[in-house]
Amino acid sequence: MFGGSPPACYLSRKVVGLTERLYWQDAYMTEFDAKVEGVEEAGVRLDRTAFNPRGGGLVSDLGRLNGVDVVEVVKKDEEIYHVLGGGATMRPGEPVHGVIDWERRHRVMRMHTTAHILSAVVNRETGALITGNQIAPVESRIDFSLEAFDREKFAGYVKMANEAAASGAEVRSFFMKREEALNTPGFVKLAEALPPAGAELRIVQIGSIDTQADGGVHVKNTSEIGEITVNKIENKGKSNRRLYFSLRP
Ligand SMILES: [Zn+2]
Fold first, then answer.
1. Are 141 and 242 in contact (CB under 8 A)?
2. Would the N or C end of the chain have less CB density within 10 A of its end CB?
3. Residues with beta carbon < 5 A to ion ligand 1?
4. What b/e readout covers 157-172, taking b as 16+ CB neighbours within 10 angstroms?
5. Residues 147, 131: Cα–Cα separation, whole Å
6. Backbone torsions φ then ψ of 17, nearest 5 degrees
7. Distances (CA, A) of 95 to 37, 46, 79, 236
8. 95 CA distance to ligand 1 centroid (A)?
9. Average of pLDDT values for 91-115?
């Protein structure tokens, strides 16, 4: 996301030894096999996972591991922990089969790509920065730092975002050396959240609409988004505007 604040999409490192992030390789993977690496207070840690953890404003995936409900997935020190329902637990070394709640996940992917497009349009048209966001399956919101607010102009930005989504732009992701990303204008928008030197950043590119360092899940083509509808815009302080949006169908 744009702006200078950590609540927007997080930067993520590709570090050897951590849970392999299958959702980076294929955001459309709905089932996977893995092995339990550790069982800790924070949850169950696997050698690989397709569950996208809560972070960067995105809600976590839900689903099942060996038939047990996964009620939350969290990230701590770049590690991923699966919280099981009903106090269930697992043994280290145990093989597991994971199933993602795909309906929820795909809605979050559509919402997330939409948030990038809306933010890119509003930033381009007004210079407003993103100060926060919350991406959820049914309704999402973006906070813009913007003093002058014109309802009619905003309706125009939403129309532009819808046109951009309907254009069928391809979304792709790749890794880039931190230094290289830093030297590419606009790629890294959260300077204070930067990983250490030498690390790689994951870059997400939405056609010619938006490119930035980003760790979250997206659709592979913006034609999957559908129609963006704005539910309301609230004033949250003198220069903060909170925009709530949904997607149809
Ligand atoms: Zn993002």
1. yes
2. C
3. 9, 214, 216
4. bbebbbebbeeebebe
5. 13
6. 105, -20
7. 10, 9, 19, 48
8. 32
9. 97
